[in-house]
Amino acid sequence: MAQNKVTSEQFIGFKKREAAGVKKRAEVGKIVSFIILAAFCIIWVMPFFIMFFGSLRGHIDTTFYPKELFYPHSGYTLENYKILLFQEYPPDFPQHNTTQEYAIGHWFMNTCFSAIGGTLLYLLVASLAAYTFVFIDFKFHNVLFAILVASMVVPGAATSVGNQSLVYAMGLNKSILALIIPGLGGIYGMYLIKTFFESIPKDLIESARMDGYNNWEIYLKIVLPLGKTVLFVQGLFGFMGGWNDLVWPQMLFGTQDSKKWTLQVGMAYIINNSKTANLIGSALAGGVVCLVPVLAMYIVAQDKIIDGMAGAGIKR
Fold it and tell me: 222-256: buried (b, 16+ CB within 10 Å) or exposed (e) per residue?
């Protein structure tokens, strides 16, 4: 029997068809992946669209036309923001709901103090601790660091009562400083900064010591400038955590003095008191007010976040 021989033209044609099939399957996979990701994105952003457009609806629309969300019957209005920020109620607003007073100015300042001040102070403490673990050799430092890392598995709720007792013992239970002090012991940020500091060449540090630099000078003039990316990333994470914190301020101040609340506590109060339809818009407007600063900061800093997280895992 004569054996069938495959010519070079047939072989090339077969390879081309095979490559075309692989390319087609890859394109189909990309399309399917895009559809899945688009569906998840729509599901994720839909609550934000509902919150934003809902905050632009007047009390008449929320009461009598609740289903007209994106195209209000009476048109868009800033009524809810005027109620929230300035307590300016429309003339036809129900009188029994005009007694709400929102100290949103105090809430905003308290939140800024907690988020910004707490973040800056934590960066100082965490970076000094990370520098100590990486560049200063002392006895049992590996054991101590292992204990600190192991403590990360303890949930925050388990330590909240202890933190509250510490604040009361320090006499800070009525002070805004109580929002900051317990968070200075966070381990995750220190671990992230330490990982980045380990990528700094030790020869550079030893050369600085030979030139007469002490640890404080090395920290300020060499380590901090090289680690500004990871500090920026951790600072953003710390700011977002402080800005969005609800449980800890509620535990501290409760309902005693509303002027010491943060935005999140105030928004929880507004939502809890928005039982009637004409106050729902104010609650949604409060959500927008809380979201805008964090969203703006994230949009501006997203490139640095990616670079910082990527650089934290690189060892040179």
Answer: bbeeebebbbbbbbbbbbbbbbebeebbbebbeee
At 2, is the pLDDT very low, low, confident or very high (cuts 50, 70, 90)? Answer: very low
Q: Model confidence over 236-263: pLDDT tens digits?
A: 888 888 888 888 888 888 776 778 888 8
SS in 3 state form for 25-50? HHHHHHHHHHHHHHHHHHHHHHHHHH
Look-up of token digits 């934290």 = 312
DSSP-assigned letters across all residues of 108-123: HHHHHIIIIIHHHHHH
Amino acid in position 125: V
Tell me what percent of the residues of the chain surpass a pLDDT of 70: 84
Residue with tokens 């010591």: 209
Calculate the CA dihedral of residues 110, 119, 150, 178 and round it to 10 degrees. -30
What one-character DSSP code corresponds to residue 180? T
Query: Does residue 148 contact residue 218 with C-beta atoms inside 8 Å?
Result: no
Q: What token pair was written down for 139? A: 């006895």
Q: What sign does the dihedral 127-133-135-138 (CA atoms) show? A: positive
Residues in contact with 297: Cβ distance below 8 Å, sequence separation at least 6, in sequence order = 236, 239, 240
Which run of H or E residues covers position 281?
helix 280-312
pLDDT in tens, 182-235: 888 888 889 989 988 888 888 888 888 888 888 899 999 889 988 888 888 888
Which structural domains are found in the chain, ordered by start? 14-89 (no CATH), 104-312 (1.10.3720.10)
Closest C-alpha to 241, from 229, 249, 253, 252? 249
Instruction: Kindly give, in sequence order, each residue whose CB lies less than 8 Å from that of residue 241, ignoring residues fewer than 6 positions away.
Output: 183
